[in-house]
TrEMBL record:
GO BP term, pick one: riboflavin biosynthetic process
Single GO term (MF): 5-amino-6-(5-phosphoribosylamino)uracil reductase activity
Organism name: Mycolicibacterium chitae (Mycobacterium chitae)
Keywords tagged on the record: NADP, Oxidoreductase
Pathway of action: Cofactor biosynthesis; riboflavin biosynthesis
Signal peptide positions on this chain: none
Gene this chain is encoded by: ribD_2
InterPro entries reported for this sequence: DHFR-like_dom_sf, RibDG_C, Riboflavin_Biosynth_HTPR
Listed name of the protein: Pyrimidine reductase
Amino acid sequence: MPEPVAGTQLTLLGGTGLVDEQRLCDLYSYPDRLTRCWVRSNFITSIDGGASADGKSGGLGSPGDRALFALMRELADVVVVGAGTVRVENYGGAKLSAAARQTRQARGQAEVPPIAIVTRSGDLDRDMRVFTDTEVTPLVLTATVALEATRARLGAAAEVIDCSAKDAGAVDIPTMLTTLAGRGLLRVLTEGGPRLHGSFIDAGLLDELCLSLAPTLLGGQAPRIAAGPGQAHTALRRAHLLADDAGYLYTRYVRNQ
């Protein structure tokens, strides 16, 4: 189990009580024998639905939430995130323990999952931490119109990939997932932000939502976990519900097939 879980006990509600390391990994494992990308999102909100405190989601976190955050990264082939979230949260590359790397190798995965940044404009600075503090070259998933300029700006700091379809000025979600699948990156984890999350939902390509609920009321104008012009009614079923002694709830919902 990831190191931040030290001192945190998670209980499976409606199940067998306390969850050990192996059981927790089983609860969050991806489906076997995938032939397409399986997209999991991971978010945290207050109990009144706010997705960030003082502009950052980390302000709502807890040791249990951080442990599950790390575990989901350990299980994923790739971590997909919007450029705005990379800037606000000051993203660096994924950091995994020696034990986690060995487990990934045994599963046939690369030791460390790459961060894949989704950006229509390609407006990213080469000195951003996501490019300077990483063991694995990040992927930049951008639109056709921004491709060459972004490659010229970032050079060897990133692998820049065209993910447009008919609209050369937009990143197409199905095309993006097809591109990732072609690289064998089938276990997809997205961590936001809300607009990218909304795009997955609008496209009908979000397979599951892992949502942590912090025992906090935010009020005000805190954003939701999904944003955008579309509206979808996607039926999900609850896969499990965990709790800790700090009052947090950790849910996993999976799309009805």
